[in-house]
Structures
1.
Amino acid sequence: MFRKSALIASFIVHVLGFVGEAAWETVVIKFRQIALLSRTPRFPELDEPRNIVIIGASFAGYYAAQVIASKLPPNSPYRVVIIEPHSHFHFTWVLPRFCVVDQEQKAFIPYGPLLKGAPEGRVRWVRERVAKVNRNGVWLEKSREQIPYDFLVVATGSGAAAGLPSRVPVDTKEEGTALLQDMQHNIKQAQHLVVVGGGAAGVELATDVKHMYPGKFVTLVHSRKAVMHRFGPELQAAALQGLKDLGIETVLHERTASSNIVDGQITLQSGRRIRCDFLVNCTGQRATSGIMTELAPEAISPTGAIRVKPSLQIQDDKLSNVYACGDVADVGIDNPNARSALRQGMVVGFNIVRAATGGSPTKTYKPFWGECVIKLTLGLDKSIVHIGNGKTELWWRSKEKDISLDAAGAWNHLGVKPFQDDDGLEKQVE
Ligand SMILES: Cc1cc2nc3c(=O)[nH]c(=O)nc-3n(C[C@H](O)[C@H](O)[C@H](O)COP(=O)(O)OP(=O)(O)OC[C@H]3O[C@@H](n4cnc5c(N)ncnc54)[C@H](O)[C@@H]3O)c2cc1C
Ligand SMILES: *[C@@H]1O[C@H](CO)[C@@H](O)[C@H](O)[C@H]1NC(C)=O
């Protein structure tokens, strides 16, 4: 009990610390702005603005953009160029749920409002994918345009080759909602469903399906000895119990031999066969660092994540103007998550504003276990909230009333009235 109280106390101290830190940084930047404004402009007049290029606008990149766009001094010669192929912000947390429940529109949050306060011309938004990066600039995939950068932020996150339920592998909201609807339809049609992968996405999807359609046979196949293996043993046991209570069969320490369904069956590596008329692949995600192989091959770790310094500059002293943040950055956490991605994005933002106003990028990101707090749903109306610091776990059960898992909260966070979408990226930015 004492250890649990200590965990709670330490959590509160950390959170208060972050709030104080953000407030302090705002003061520092304000002072720097005042100092710069009172001097004659130290930057020469330039025909072309200098670019701070941000690749990827999800939790890490979008918040980095917000900090930079709002905190650069008004007379700064820099502008922010955001390169992101998605028409909308993809809200990942709800994807397993919306593979089952028809609320798919809510997973796509309009871009723009977070950058509203920025001065005119400060932000350029490019709906494209970066194909390649080198020292001279970034190359866009379709238009082949080359965009030079003074600072570069790589916030390309992670991806699941299998797509849903971990990522939506298309760019427009129309295509994305269509994919989710197809998935809902396929799940509804199936009688024997096999879910592969017992991480959060697999556990949530399997329990949602069985809760919504108790008559279906649902089997969860996981290659490890426990589901939720990246978390503590207490959560692992509670998740397994949740699966059992709903009547899901969980097959541990087993892999599928192939993803092909043959004669209505799927074969595992042990030779065991399981009836299956639809398979949902919820296996792991990998850092999306491919575009960096030319510029910084040495900074890419075997997992694909980009090695960074505590300042989130990439681990290459020749490239001190290049930063990485979010899931794509190797910051030494077991469970990459949106909260740490967002905080890393802000650290990068603060560092670039400092560097772009003549200071040095001395803000650091220190991983904090409390950021890995997870709410794991176990069916449509139950969940477990869990935090752990690697030694002690703290968790409790909670009742879920909102079928869309507080998607509204995420919309509000991004400055958009839930669930209003006038489809206005172009209208809102530029
Ligand atoms: C099913 C699921 C549930 C989750 N639930 C939670 C949760 O409850 N709480 C939590 O904290 N975290 C949760 N997470 C984790 C969270 O989603 C990630 O940690 C977070 O999305 C990471 O944000 P990011 O900005 O680093 O990258 P991502 O969200 O991966 O986004 C990367 C962005 O970069 C863009 N991009 C990629 N390549 C290029 C390119 N070449 N050119 C231009 N743009 C590019 C992509 O289009 C994308 O918009 C969940 C994840 C999943 C899969
Ligand atoms: C799941 O997707 C991953 C990544 O694409 C792939 O390697 C794996 O074979 C797939 N598994 C199944 C059972 O389809």
2.
Amino acid sequence: MTIKIYHIPFARSTRAVWMYHEIYEANGQASNADIPKLQVEILDFATFRTHKPKEFLEKNPNGKIPVLIDDERNVTMWDGSAIAMYLLDNYDKGKVSNIRLITFL
Ligand SMILES: N[C@@H](CCC(=O)N[C@@H](CS)C(=O)NCC(=O)O)C(=O)O
């Protein structure tokens, strides 16, 4: 099982990828087994505005990144802040969510 995030480096999708890593690192080895592995699907910055992959548009018809697909929970969602909150709600064990970090969202 994986969490897949469609991403373009330095774009807003960075928030979602960053939050995954915050949770993965902060919760330690014991709980790392509880969070599915991350698969980052990098899209091409140069062509993304004009040529969006069909497979991507099927996941998010409004054509924006980030998009998260969580196989384990059968969830597909978009919007960077919503994805960050989803990851906190479902995979953090209180290590990240109690830090002022979320005020950046
Ligand atoms: N409210 C959304 C905005 C997402 C957004 O605007 N993404 C931009 C990249 S930063 C995008 O996908 N632009 C491509 C396009 O509009 O064709 C979020 O924060 O996730």
3.
Amino acid sequence: MAQSPQMLEKSISSKALEEISGGRLEALPAAEVLEWAIKTFHPGIALSASFGGPEGMVVLDMMHRLNPHSRVFVLDTGRLPQATYDLIDRVRDRYDKDVEIVFPEPPAVEKMVRDHGANLFYESIERRQLCCQVRKVEPLNRKLADLEAWVTGLRRDQAVTRTQTAKVELDRAHGGIVKVNPLADWTDEEVWTYVREHGVPTNRLHTQHYPSVGCDPCSRAIKPGEDPRAGRWWWERPETKECGIHVGEEEGGSGI
Ligand code: SF4
């Protein structure tokens, strides 16, 4: 088992720390936030993209324009829909990019499925969180342990759990690495405008009323007028709908 990232303390330069705490970055547009981040941390910085939302694809495109060697990784939970695997292949071809695939630990998946069955996530919030822990959180922690900074496509208006998202912040839940959320203040409309204007590839399930695509058994299409997050873990209340990847200190720092 990889060492817990909470036990690792990253040495972020004092200059970078000053820039982060100074607040200047919060006022910058997304491309300039990314330019600063890549200049400061590459190759120790990578985008975490689910390939299941347009935001990650927008950030991937922006990072590629700034540096064709910019890095991206995806957590392959083993339960992703075919459309997501197809998009990963399209991105590899379109950008000539090595998409870094991160898998869960096979023994942990085997034990979980033996103990609780393959569809444990429908049984309770605890079982769903266990599945996310094994298939997403542990692999992410392992990946982040080798990075100084990571980039996400989080936006503040995506969910009640994301309203405090800063554009650049210290991620103490992951050993104090830097977390960059360049689209924090973007709207859904701005994201899709960028996609159209730059011909960014996106997940084809978006055209079938999936605003957000996660694992196949935990994602569904939404009806007109439904909240965009209604198609993820639809059997749970909105405030529990995180996989543990994006958890801040105010939420206990118990995951991501
Ligand atoms: S989203 Fe569903 S299938 Fe994927 S890791 Fe979480 S509980 Fe498991």
4.
Amino acid sequence: MALAPALFLDRDGNLIEDHHHTCEVHQISPISGVKPALEACLQAGYRLFILTNQSGINRGKFTWSQYHACNRRMLELLALPTPGILEIKAAPERPDEPSVYRKPSPQFILEMIAKYQLDPARCWMVGDRITDWDAGKNAGIRSCAVHSGAGRPEDFAYAESQGFAIRTDFPEFVRVDLGLKF
Ligand SMILES: [Mg+2]
């Protein structure tokens, strides 16, 4: 069986607007153009995964229940065709806590590459923060930095120094780096 291409997607500031510890259902708003971009990726055979650092859970800012409600709302608004997003992994730990999955850990990406027989050469990690881009780098896949979230100018200087793709937002990444029309 041929290995499949895949996208590992940061949630806040990439797929949905970032409200800093986004935890209320009414805050959930897909970034413009993300829905048709994801649909184009599915049409092209990309397997889709979400990998999100949610330290607000262990900081006591919101609960797992609130986090899951936000994901449900996001998926409802995106209404993607089957198979949609295959798996969503959240790391609840604070940056100072040990964590298996918190980005820049490559653990989730490596597990999914093995589980779904993905082609690392056709896998990307896309997000708005250094931790996202370094998770891709640490997993040996390509990374794209998007300007639609919390990234600071110095972060993008780092992205440039590392040779990561740098785009306005996820839809631009899909058009430019994946070459898909939608
Ligand atoms: Mg983010």
